[in-house]
Amino acid sequence: MVRDPRSPVVVTALAAALVLALGGASWATSDVERGDSLLLEGRPAEALAVWEQVRVGRPRDTGLLIRIATAQARLDRLADAEATLLQAASIDPKSPKVRQNLGIVYLKKKDFEKSLAAFGEVLKLEETYPAANYFIGLIHEMRGDEKTAETYYVREVNNGSCLDAWDRLWRLSERRRAEGRGPQRPASWKIMTFSFAVLGFAGLLYGLRLYLEARRNRRVDAWMNG
Predict the structure, then answer these.
(1) What is the reported pTM?
(2) d(CA 4, CA 137)
(3) Residue 176 pLDDT
(4) In a domain, 221, yes or no
(5) Which CATH number belongs to the domain containing residue 120 in this structure?
(6) Does residue 207 register a pLDDT over 50?
(7) What's the total number of domains in the chain?
(8) Comparing C-alpha atoms, which of 171, 181, 158 is closest to residue 9?
(9) Burial (CB count within 10 angstroms: exposed 0-12, middle 13-18, buried 19+), residue 91
(10) Which of 87, 123, 156, 214 has the maximal Cβ count within 10 Å?
(11) Is the pLDDT assigned to residue 15 strictly greater than 90?
């Protein structure tokens, strides 16, 4: 069973593409920023026109190509968005950001196999890349495989990078409870408790590491200045 991909979570997936593009930009020009503003104002055609002009002088800039693909996807030009991101992938094959956005476009096209493959490539490049596990879980949930979906949502939660994963876990638990398939108390609370314990332990280890590094640095400083 494939669930309707027009849920709020899926519809906002393309917005995530823009966030990823903006977050990875190492440069900015007035035209690029103008395109960003136009897209955020809901004017993707105008944003695309601006970025296509910039593209003439920056044909190999993957951050710009991600922006262009995002605008194309907003205009339902999904084949163009796919082609743009494949070009970006050929320029920078080791970019998880490019693969992530390609996976989002495939998800919008309902090509779940290609989408899963793209997100899988993201995790090969960076196993804790934000939202990759979440999107994989979302695809499995849309296919009706709640158990596998939950596994990936929990991974995303433990990475601490996607609040939507919490929401999907809660909804799955509530759905099972409403259908009489789960405990009266949502199972997501157990997951939350476990995750907070893991995060707390990780924070303790990190604090210990900082303390030990500070002591070591003081010893080095004393040796150099002695």
Answers:
(1) 0.69
(2) 15
(3) 86
(4) no
(5) 1.25.40.10
(6) yes
(7) 1
(8) 171
(9) middle
(10) 156
(11) no
